[in-house]
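Sanity check

After download, print the first record. It should look like this:
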Amino acid sequence: MPSITVPQFRDFVFAWMRENGARAQRVQLLDWGWEWWLQAELAGNLRAYDSTLDVRREQFVFDGKQRSDLLLNGSSTVPGERIIVELKTLRATEYVKPAFLKEIAVDVDKLQNHLKTTHMGAQLLSMAFYFDANAPIPPGFQRREDLHRDLAVCWREMVVLD
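Expected structure tokens:
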């Protein structure tokens, strides 16, 4: 089964956001935000782009009952080919900088400290999406602001070996 790399997935996300930023801007105003919508849109459109890719949502890759937003290349027997993705979104109407940064930090902690042993060595990606290009980003994250008007994305790539 063909696999996707972190840079390929990141570029796919950027291209998708450029094309769908106006939709995201409308959806993010709905009650309960837009994280689940984004998760389904990215997974569905990635499969539409290449139906042979292994794209899974809400997989139990963490200790306890926590699930990943996306698991890419999940059927690979090589842990380093698997990509575990955590997404975080912020509604423009609920912009609270410290709370959003804390939620991103919780995702990073989950990725770094709560993986099941069967997923050690997987590539880890935390991505946060928000409609404020001036928002602060967590330490160790990179930012991309040229996607669609005020839409910005920050991300951090990690690997936990043991």
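If your output differs, re-run the checksum step. Summary of this record's structure: The mean pLDDT is 86.
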